[in-house]
Design a protein that fits this description.
The two termini are 17 Å apart. This protein is mostly helical. It is built from three helices and no strands. The longest helix has 31 residues. 68% of the residues lie in helices and 0% in strands. The mean pLDDT is 93. It has one domain.
């Protein structure tokens, strides 16, 4: 595996998209928490599948026309795609499958 200019560019783009998705997730949690009672607030720390499903469900319920969730998902998918392209450009899958 070798890091070349193309793989580094894809890596930087992927990391940037993933960081933006994280900021959008924090914004989404903040918007949901503004409308939830104190005892039902969602913590900013720790992310797991059940919590992500609750954030998405609550956001879509409270903001049916909101765009933050769609933007977050788009940046997550784009970020993972760039990271996958970085792995390809670096030759990570060159000898796949290993026999």
């Amino acid at each position: 595996m070798e890091l070349n200019a193309l793989s580094i560019a894809f890596l930087v783009l992927g990391a940037s998209c993933t960081i933006i998705a994280g900021f959008l997730l924090w914004q989404e949690i903040g918007e949901v928490n503004r409308k939830l009672p104190d005892d039902e607030q969602i913590s900013y720390l720790g992310i797991y599948a059940e919590k992500m499903a609750r954030i998405k469900r609550e956001y879509n319920r409270l903001y049916p026309n909101g765009r933050t969730d769609r933007g977050r998902v788009a940046f997550q998918i784009t970020g993972f795609a760039f990271l996958f392209l970085a792995a390809i450009a670096a030759g990570f899958f060159r000898h796949w499958p290993v026999r």
